[in-house]
Amino acid sequence: MAEECGETNAAIFWADFVQFGTKCVSDKKVEKSDSGGNPLMASWIRQYALVLEFLGMLAVLGYVGYRLDLRYGWSPWGLFGGLMTALVAGVYRMLREGRRLNK
C-alpha cells in the first residue's frame, strides 16, 4: 500500500495519513472528511457518542424519577416516567441524527 503512494516505508505513509488526512489509493489522493480523519472512523465515533448520550439520558432521567418516587411516594411511576422520557428522547435524537447523516 505504501508503494502505491510512492513511499518506501509504511510508517511514513501512516504518519502522513494521520498528519495531513490524505490517503493514496491506486495513485489517487482521497481527502479527509469534515470530521478531520478517516470517514469510517468518524462514523464509528459518532455512533458511540450517540450510544453514550442515550445511556446518559437513561441514567440521569431514571435517577430523577427514582428520587421523585422516594420524595412523593409514587413508587414505580416516577422511575417508569423518567425511563420512558429518556427512551423517547433518545429515539428521537437517534432518528434526527440518522436523517442528518443521510443528507
Describe this structure in words.
With 103 residues, the protein is mainly alpha-helical. It folds into two domains: 1-31, no CATH class; 39-101. The protein is 69% helix and 6% strand. The protein contains three helices and two strands. The protein has helices spanning 10-20, 39-72, 76-101, and strands at 23-25, 28-30. It has a two-stranded antiparallel sheet with strand order 1-2. Strand 1 and strand 2 form a beta hairpin. The two termini are 32 Å apart. Mean pLDDT is 76; it is low at 11-33.
Task: Tell me the layout of helices and strands.
Blueprint: H1 10-20, E1 23-25, E2 28-30, H2 39-72, H3 76-101
**Counting H and I runs of at least 4 residues, what is the number of helices?**
3
Helix content: 55-70%
Q: Got a strand count?
A: 2
Q: How would you characterize the largest beta sheet? A: 2 strands, antiparallel
The poorly predicted ranges are 11-33
Ends: how far apart? 32 Å
Gyration radius, rounded:
22 Å
* Strand/helix succession: HEEHH
Shape: elongated
Structural class: mainly alpha
Strand content: 5-15%
How many separate domains? Answer: 2
Lateral strand order in the biggest sheet: 1-2
Average pLDDT works out at 76
